[in-house]
Design a protein that fits this description.
heterodimer, A: alpha/beta, 4-stranded mixed sheet, 3-stranded mixed sheet, 32% helix, elongated, B: mainly alpha, Ferritin
Chain lengths: 187, 247
């Protein structure tokens, strides 16, 4: 199962020691590695910013929680962001594009270019652990091999409607506590 | 690649989506009101992907909106099955089932297309269409194997639409060309797998598979039934009346 989010920053055991010896022996190489570390830091910072961009339909989860942000990179001074729409007809995609541009600009990006990438197609496998937690906390059952009631945790549930208020959700009812809840369909 | 190829798949999705929307507010139960709207929304999204690609290939400055709202019936290349009126819930179910089953097979072929964009759109659409097929098949079986009235209506619906299903499996010169160069598939190849599944589902639904072999055709060539004209008139009237209008 591919977990979404962003790539882990690379870890070096003794950055200070290796950088020192780099600077002494290879000044150009140290300059390059310094630049690429700054680039990585900037990209990392932008992922942090996007972590706070809420999904317009479900504002308690962010677009990175849902695995909608596929890539962030720098092209000179332009920030290039690749998004993947969840369902083909999802009306939130266009709103999210606008939100991404506006938010990154507000945080100092001079130029932002957002592209939509439809392949590989979005999967609920890309929803992060944090996304799962936030969905559950909001009373929505996250995708799972078997739906569980987000209120009482029971696995004894029944489907009321395979389609819900948004294309990604179905409507269920818990047989144990009798409360209805929405369920993000495995996709 | 000719723009017409992705346009055909886009028009199928677009026309069926527009038909399904007419059920919103009128479905027999609330869950179906939501379900039909969701299926239509998926189809509109797929249509946007196909039509945008077609517009780019055509390179005449027509985008998805221009293609949707400013083409006349003669320029649409959807199959006749999807433009058929909604009728009652059984008619709509039969139309959806026949189409969803075909689409799942056709999109399966297109995921292997040599054209990257077509393969990507097909891969995305296939996931959604599989959900659509589960729904329409479940209803086919529920209504067929239901009350005497639901059974009679479902049988009549299947009998009525049968003569529009043959067109799904007739290839023309463009199909041959696309199949030969690895971009598309030969529609005839889907006939047997489609029929096999129809027989299975109809058997579970206690319905009789209609026997006719004659098929109405012409949709892919722009020769449509009068039903499409009325549907397009309603769909297109506003943007055509106010072409400069913006949200």
């Amino acid at each position: 199962m591919v977990k979404a989010g962003h790539p882990e920053p690379s870890t070096v055991c003794h950055p200070a020691r290796s950088e020192r010896s780099e600077r002494i022996c290879h000044p150009e190489r140290s300059e390059r590695s310094e630049r690429s570390r700054r680039t990585r830091d900037r990209i990392e910072a932008m992922y942090r910013i996007l972590d706070d961009v809420p999904d317009p339909e479900m504002p308690f989860v962010s677009i990175t929680d849902l695995g909608i942000v596929r890539d962030v990179r720098l092209d000179g001074d332009t920030v290039v962001v690749a998004l993947t729409p969840t369902y083909s007809g999802c009306p939130a995609t266009q709103v999210i594009q606008g939100d991404v541009v506006r938010t990154l600009r507000e945080h100092g990006a001079k130029d932002v270019r957002v592209g939509v990438r439809i392949a590989p197609p979005w999967s609920t496998d890309w929803i992060t652990e944090r996304g799962h937690e936030r969905l559950r906390a909001a009373g929505i059952a996250p995708p799972a091999p078997h739906a569980r009631c987000p209120r009482c945790g029971s696995g004894s549930v029944r489907e009321l409607s395979r389609f819900g208020a948004t294309p990604c959700k179905a409507l269920y009812r818990c047989n144990a506590c009798d409360e209805p809840f929405e369920y993000v369909k495995p996709f | 690649m000719p723009a017409e190829y992705p346009l055909r798949f886009g028009d199928n999705a677009l026309v069926l989506a527009q038909r399904l929307c007419a059920w919103v507010g009128h479905a027999p139960v609330m869950e179906e009101d939501v379900a039909l709207a969701n299926v239509a929304l998926d189809l509109f999204g797929q249509a946007r992907l196909w039509l945008s690609y077609a517009g780019e290939l055509e390179a005449r400055g027509r985008d998805e909106d221009a293609l949707t709202f400013h083409r006349d019936a003669r320029e649409f290349c959807n199959v006749l099955l999807v433009e058929h009126e909604n009728g009652d819930f059984a008619d709509t179910t039969a139309r959806s089932y026949f189409y969803d089953l075909w689409a799942s097979l056709a999109l399966g072929e297109l995921t292997r297309s040599g054209d990257e964009r077509i393969a990507a759109i097909a891969q995305k659409a296939l996931k959604e269409v599989r959900y659509h097929l589960r729904r329409s098949q479940d209803w086919l079986i529920r209504l067929g194997d239901g009350t005497p009235e639901s059974h009679a209506r479902m049988q009549r619906a299947a009998d009525g639409l049968w003569r529009f299903t043959g067109e799904l499996f007739i290839g023309d010169r463009l199909d041959d060309e696309m199949a030969a160069n690895g971009t598309g598939f030969a529609p005839e190849r889907l006939r047997d797998p489609w029929l096999e599944r129809v027989h299975e589902a109809f058997s579970a639904a206690t319905l009789t598979v209609p026997a006719g072999t004659w098929t109405q055709r012409g949709g892919k060539q722009g020769v449509h039934t009068e039903a499409l004209g009325y549907m397009l008139a309603e769909m297109q009237v506003l943007p055509r009346a106010m072409p400069e209008a913006r949200w």
